[in-house]
Amino acid sequence: MDHVRVGLVGLGTVGTGVYKMLQENKDIITKKVGKEIRVEKILVRNKDKERDPEIPSELITFDPGDILENDDIDIVIEVMGSVELAMDYIKRALSAKKQVITANKDLIALHEEELSELAHLNGRDLYFEASVAGGIPIIGTLKEDLAGNKIRKIMGIINGTTNYILTKMTKEGKSYEEVLKDAVALGYAESDPTADVEGLDAARKIAILGTIAFDTKITFNDVYVEGITKITKDDIKYADELGYIVKLLGIGMNVDDKAEARVHPVFISKDHPLAAVNDVFNAIFVEGNAVGETMFYGRGAGELPTASAVIGDLMKATRDFINDTMGSSYRKIVKRKEIKDISEVDTAFYTRMKVKDIPGVFAKIATVFGDHGVSIALVRQQYRDDSGVAEIVLVTHKVQEKNVRDSLAAIEKLDVVEKVTSVIRVEEGKR
């Protein structure tokens, strides 16, 4: 045939972007892959939803079988979201020996290994570049361009909503609650922003990236997660005074044949490349033993950036289909690395506490830290209020998390300490 036949599952923001991009860039895409890519059917669930008038109504179907078990469909693109239903559809498509592309991060973070094995058994491929960081080409880069490296570290701003909120808090001095309200009004945050602000979205993405980068299996449930809801204007202010910026980072490490996977707020030095990534932009910092330090930057979400990643996968899938080289993307995990518990992770810490403004307070706090093997890099007493309570800000040297947590538990019991008000990890100390 002179064209390759595609079934599109889902016609929301990303699905509409995929269809439009295929039409707008048809000539250049056809030239690059050798055949026209033609959307034959589009599966939707809501019969009453108003759709873009540019999309022909005759392409719309409400029957999954019109795509999934249709011999006239060569490639299936899933952009509908959900987990259980998408899992069922993708399994049906792969079992029917179709190439499959998905943008579904929730699904891939949980079931990528199972689906990739099913694709392999059927001599087909599962592509999922669009599941992480929108239009930033990071998954293909890790799988192919950096495949010869031992990846030591992958660290990134991989959620635009939280980056927007922290950027506005930093630049405008507003509280988390104020900025969140603005973000919802502007459409940068969902009306229920839990998945973003609690770090769940970023956790799914770092699970996917860590699995590829470290050649092991990391699922969403393996990732330690902490969101930004407890970050205050004071934390932002102290970060600035100490030479840092506050960011929510997804962090994966490959250390001593063990893997780390975590998402949490971080004090990161102002001279680190990630510190300059603001608003809704994403960036992923990768360190390999051969390539050294690299960073990938761009829009992490949206109709066209995500559609761009889907189309890139579609072009790869089409070439493999045309050249009969399907099934070549499968990689079997040979050895599974142990995932470190957060208590075993080594990092520096910023902590803020309210204490009685009397002689000997810091000596007592320093003694507890010392008893637990925690070394203090700097300490500042910030102010004293009318009630005789002062605020102390401390930054530790790099130390195992368990030691810091045990120290703070003991410090909170001291009669001179009113409250430990904030604890935030510091990425690699001050650069």
Key descriptive features of the protein:
single chain, 431 residues, alpha/beta, Rossmann fold, Dihydrodipicolinate Reductase, domain 2, Alpha-Beta Plaits, 3 domains, twelve-stranded mixed sheet, six-stranded parallel sheet, 14 helices, methionine biosynthesis, ACT_dom
Question: Can you describe this structure?
Answer:
This protein is an alpha/beta fold and 431 residues long. The protein has three domains: 3-134 and 303-323, Rossmann fold; 139-299, Dihydrodipicolinate Reductase, domain 2 (2-Layer Sandwich), CATH 3.30.360; 344-426, Alpha-Beta Plaits (2-Layer Sandwich), CATH 3.30.70. Helices cover 36% and strands 27% of the residues. The strands form two sheets. Strands 7, 8, 9, 10, 11, 12, 13, 14, 15, 16, 17 and 18 form a twelve-stranded mixed β-sheet that branches. A six-stranded parallel β-sheet has the order 3-2-1-4-5-6, with helices on both faces. The longest helix has 21 residues, at 303-323. The N and C termini lie far apart (58 Å). The relative contact order is 0.13. The model has no long low-confidence stretch (mean pLDDT 93). L-homoserine binds at residue 190.
